């Protein structure tokens, strides 16, 4: 989610797990418009027993965001998301909101 008034270039940002495995690299030329969302589908690559997920800059040296989750956070047909777009509180989301606002969904 881009909470700023400016479009952001998120080319080559890296999504890693706690074992430092690259789960995804955002394609070159990817712009995130102000107020827009970007989703990454990692399939079943997240550990159901818990993990630590990192969003890193293209140099792979700066952590831009991260989230630790535990087995207690995970259940079937429930995702984990920020309670409010760009907020700091994470909650279980029972209403799907992929690619749209979490406000009111979590």
Q: Please, could you describe this protein's structure?
A:
With 106 residues, this protein is mainly β. The chain has strands spanning 8-9, 14-16, 22-25, 31-32, 50-56, 63-70, 79-82, 90-93. A hairpin with a 5-residue loop joins strand 2 (14-16) and strand 3 (22-25). The two termini are 15 Å apart. The mean pLDDT is 88.
Chart the SSEs and their pairings.
Elements: E1 8-9, E2 14-16, E3 22-25, E4 31-32, E5 50-56, E6 63-70, E7 79-82, E8 90-93
Antiparallel strand pairs: 1-4, 2-3, 2-5, 5-6, 7-8
Describe this structure in a few short sentences.
The chain has no helices and eight strands. It is 0% helix and 32% strand.
Quick one: biggest sheet? 4 strands, antiparallel
Order of helices and strands: EEEEEEEE
Radius of gyration: 14 Å
Instruction: Report the total helices.
Output: 0
Q: Give the low-confidence spans.
A: none
The rounded distance between the terminal residues' Cα atoms is: 15 Å
Describe the oligomeric state of these chains in a short phrase: single chain
Helix content: under 10%
**How many beta-strand segments?**
8
Give the class from helix and strand content and strand pairing: mainly beta
């Amino acid at each position: 989610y881009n909470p700023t008034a400016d479009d952001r270039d998120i080319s080559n940002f890296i999504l890693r797990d706690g074992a430092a495995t690259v789960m995804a690299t955002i394609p070159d030329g990817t712009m995130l418009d102000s107020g827009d969302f970007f989703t990454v589908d990692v399939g079943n690559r997240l550990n159901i027993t818990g993990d630590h997920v990192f969003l890193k800059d293209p140099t792979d040296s700066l952590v831009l965001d991260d989230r630790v989750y535990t087995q207690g956070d995970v259940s079937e047909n429930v995702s984990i998301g920020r309670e409010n777009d760009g907020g700091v509180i994470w909650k279980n989301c029972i209403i799907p909101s992929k690619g749209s606002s979490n406000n009111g969904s979590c």
